[in-house]
Amino acid sequence: MEYRQVGNTELWVSEIGFGCGGNAGLMVRGSLDEQQRVVARAVELGINYFDNAPDYGDGAAEENLGRVLKALQIRPIITSKVEVRHADLGDIAGHVVRSTEASLQRLGLEALDMLQIHNSPISPPPQLGGRVYTQLGIEDYLRPGGALDGLQRVLREGKARYVGFICRGNDRDQVRQLLDTGMFHMMNVTYTLLNPTAGMAKPPGLEVDRDFGGVINDAYANGVGAAIYSPLAGGFLTHPIVAGGGRHPLSGPRNTDSEAYRRDLQSAQSLSVLLREGPEGTDTLTQAAIRFILMHQGVTVVLGGFSEMSHLEEIVPVSGSGPLAPEVMSRIEQLWRANFGSPVGVSRHRPQNGHDHGL
Length: 359
Known about the structure:
Shape: globular
Helix content: 25-40%
Strand order of the largest sheet: 3-4-5-6-9-10-11-12
Number of strands: 12
Largest sheet: 8 strands, parallel, barrel
Order of helices and strands: EEEHHEHEHEEEHHEHEHEHHHEHH
Strand content: 5-15%
Number of helices: 13
Distance between the termini: 20 Å
């Protein structure tokens, strides 16, 4: 396992991290014995970074990870988050503090290494309702009593060492505003072979549902790390899915009858054929997807979504394996320019269950 520095902090984290989200499902719906077995193996293989959130199983993932860490008597680097919903808008800062305290109790910790706001910044403010939290108006981040005030309180009270936020696309200007505050040290963002726009300008010809505007480069320039969630595009960049099989029993639900699902599946299948026929055909589609992400100097950690031990064993060896060959990247770029064979104007590759930091 190789390690990368988190922005301009003193933290060094494994290139492959452990995502505890509901998309992979192990830390939400798996048995305690299996959770303990996989976490122990992950640590043995060099993983030292675990990404969690209260929303993962409504606190279950935090409780389960806390039990496993206690049983194994280990203390890796741990991130958790705060979800801001409609009911919290009247006292966002207070909610940030209370949510952090609840996470610490579930995890059995005195402080988090990283605390992130789980809502991406946008403008104008979104219409939050019920349990929806994926976005938050930039004004609600920055105003008195807003998210930044809450994060500053958590830092002052020693309940977190560093803070971060989430980027979900079409929000580059707002992301830059947060980076300009100088307060943040980690940004979670999705960056995949199906939608590479978080790490580069949108390739000519490629149509995407969300354009991330190269925000990994902005973060890197500001000394902010980037943790990549859903690196396998919600499971599309895996052999079982491209082969037409079903999802893992622990994985989150997916509407497999939708047109969006069929388009993304076709794109992933095109990539699978390209890689199988190329000079690096010994890589699995999953391994190639992770290698692509780790090629970017601004990427700090890839959050693997492990539903079972075999997923862990497949992904971890990618660390240190080097970049994809130039001829492979050239062929991938051809696929992007062809919009994976879709007609121009047809947006593809929208993040699926993007709030889950797993597959």
